Amino acid sequence: MRASAYSLIDADVAAALVLEHSAVLGIEPVHLGDCAGRVLAEDLVADAPLPAFPSSAVDGYAVRAADAGRTLRVVGESAAGRPFEGAIPDGAAARILTGGALPDGADCVVMVEDVQVAGDTVTVPAGLRSGTNFHKVGDDLRAGDHVLSAGTQLRAAEIGIAAATGRAQLRVRRRPRVALMSTGDELVEVGKTPGRGQIPDSNRWALLAALREAGADVEVLGIAPDEADPLRRLVVDALERADVLVTSGGVSVGTHDLVKPLLESLGTVHVGRVKLKPGKPFTFATLPSPLAGEGGPPRSGRSDGGVKLAFGLPGFPVSSLITFEVFVRPALRKMQGFAQLQRPTMPVRLGYDARPTVDRTEYQRVTLRHEGRELVAETTGSQSSSRLMSVAGAHALVRVPAGDQGLKAGSIVEAMILALP
Ligand code: AMP
Ligand code: MG
Fold first, then answer.
1. Average pLDDT of 125-142?
2. Ligand 1 in contact with 272 (CB < 6 A)?
């Protein structure tokens, strides 16, 4: 074991450094069918009114309000997509179905429940009002109306409105391409029976899910051995395609921990240790693009758009997920142009005494339950960095500041919400 050469950086300072080096990615046109979850990179403006024609809101008869109380000749029909051609003559009506275009000459629709039909005539009630029971041109959007802003995440309704305004594809931010690698000679593929001293590579699957939730396009590199040369070859090759490298394991101070020296030889290590629990060995580096040739001097990483990011997450399963939450997820969101980089927070009442760690900010995992109008947070139990069960089923993270105070049971704190109960 050797002492770490890296100074311990405050967790907030490290998070700010990561964001400072994360640049917004380019824009690509994407068909609506693939837009779910993407971030819009243009302002959407309606170039025509919606609806584009007056359309019936009910099934009934299109008439003139001035003909209230009269018996009218039914001269035709306007169904959805099959409009009545021409104008309605005096003393006449047209049958109309929901979504059918209001024929010229008509100024209101009478519901089928309110008329009396006899042969090819219809008697409409007294007291009709012009403009009733149909959607007018531009009721939903007028031409020139602002529809969606750049930076909006596209979900069902946003995609629907884009389609309704006639846009088959949208300009969205590119997804970050992330190469994901697990390191460690003890790791075996999940599903294979581990030999003595071996464990399944669980971080790969947890991080893959977390990366996808954060919007990344992931290339899984698999398990790299604790050997400098193969590790280097894998990383150098993957960085030809990826914007971001995420590794787990190999960042502490054991002699087999090769990720930090590798990143240092390829680029600039900005964060080598953080005052964070769990996740102290978290490592963040920027790498020039293209990488400097073997032996050549690496260029200093600056946020010039051509820079690649490398996150060396600790191997302990909880540490890798928490450092992902604190550092990687906000960076990936910034790259995609999200306005909101952080998880939402909500005030919760602590149901337990949250003990502090003197020298490190701690993210404790809690479950939430509704109690009256409050949310009450309970610890998920032992917060050991190897105990994934402390994250499984957690609803939120509670940030406990470094120091000797901690947070007392009964106090109200802002919790980072992962999923509401
Ligand atoms: P390291 O950071 O490489 O020293 O690993 C710290 C601990 O995390 C060790 O107990 C490793 O066995 C464990 N670990 C490392 N990588 C993984 C992984 N991919 N899946 C599950 N556990 C891991
Ligand atoms: Mg290891």
1. 98
2. no
SS3 category, 339: coil
User: Which ligand does the CA of 220 lie closest to?
Assistant: 1
Cβ neighbors of 271 (< 8 A, separation 6 or more) are 6, 9, 14, 17, 18, 282, 283, 284
The more confidently predicted of residues 291 and 348 is: 348
Q: Which residues neighbour 249 within 8 Å (Cβ) at sequence distance 6 or greater? A: 182, 183, 184, 187, 203, 257, 259, 313, 314, 315
- Give pLDDT tens digits for 237-246: 999 999 999 9
Contact of 392 with 412, CB cutoff 8 Å:
no
10 Å Cβ neighbour count for 47?
Answer: 13
Question: Rounded mean pLDDT of 187-200?
Answer: 98
Lowest mean pLDDT among 44-53, 115-124, 252-261, 320-329: 252-261
Homologous superfamily of 55-135: Molybdopterin biosynthesis moea protein, domain 3. (2.170.190.11)
- CATH code of the domain occupying 8-26+174-335: 3.40.980.10
- Residues 207, 209, 215, 220: is their CA dihedral positive or negative? positive
Which residue carries 């102290």 as its tokens?
Answer: 280
Which residue CA neighbors atom 15 of ligand 1 most closely? Answer: 315
Assess whether the region 8-26+174-335 and the region 345-417 belong to the same CATH fold. no
| Nearest Cα residue to 394 out of 361, 420, 357, 355 | 420
Q: Whose CA is nearest to atom 17 of ligand 1?
A: 315
C-beta 315 within 6 A of ligand 1: yes
Q: Enter the tokens of residue 400.
A: 């406990």
**Residue-level pLDDT at 217:** 98
Taking CA atoms only, the protein residue closest to ligand 1 atom 16 is 315
DSSP string, 253-269: SSTT--HHHHHHHHSEE
- If one residue of 189, 196, 199 were mutated to test the ligand 1 pocket, choosing by the most ligand atoms within 8 A of its CB, it would be 199
| pTM given for the model | 0.91
The two structure tokens encoding residue 138: 């531009």
